[in-house]
């Protein structure tokens, strides 16, 4: 699991090295030292081996569900049910390398919890089927529960 933040500088620093490309990045790095750890968001990768499990994702994290498939068969992974307060933000298909006729790949679904999803557990289901046949004829399914803890706000007395 890799911690992310806007920009690659923090990612490089967290990986144990810093290779600033310019004076601007050095200045940005010094400003970022004052940012609390809670400002960092995680990239949480979920695979088929986690089918049926419950994971925890904080507000601002990105959950990436990766499911194997093969577009040449005309089967597709689709989000068949999900919470309106934690929808799939975007999807993509990534072909295996080298790209050969008939070779498979991976469907990736990106979800990002926000404050509206906090304090709840969200069930998300995916089905692998041919669109013209409908999800009732799915040949594979995948489910994940995503628990999003409530966001605690610091209250400072005036």
Q: Mind explaining what this structure looks like?
A:
The protein is elongated, with a radius of gyration of 19 Å. A five-stranded mixed beta sheet has the order 1-2-4-7-6. The chain has a four-stranded mixed beta sheet with strand order 3-9-8-5, with no helix packed on it. The chain has 158 residues and is mainly beta. The chain is built from two helices and nine strands. The chain has two domains: 1-39, no CATH class; 41-148, Immunoglobulin-like (Sandwich), CATH 2.60.40. 11% of the residues lie in helices and 38% in strands. The chain has helices spanning 8-14, 23-32, and strands at residues 2-4, 41-46, 54-56, 62-69, 76-81, 88-95, 105-111, 120-129, 140-148.
CATH class of the largest domain: Mainly Beta
Distance between the termini: 39 Å
> How are the strands of the biggest sheet laid out side by side?
1-2-4-7-6
Radius of gyration: 19 Å
Mean pLDDT: 78
Low-confidence stretches: 1-38
Q: What share of the residues does DSSP label as strand, in percent? A: 35-45%
How many extended strands? Answer: 9
| Structural category | mainly beta
- How many discrete domains? 2
Largest sheet: 5 strands, mixed
Reported CATH architecture of the largest domain: Sandwich
Number of helices in the DSSP assignment: 2
Global outline:
elongated
CATH topology of the largest domain: Immunoglobulin-like
State the helicity in percent bands: 10-25%
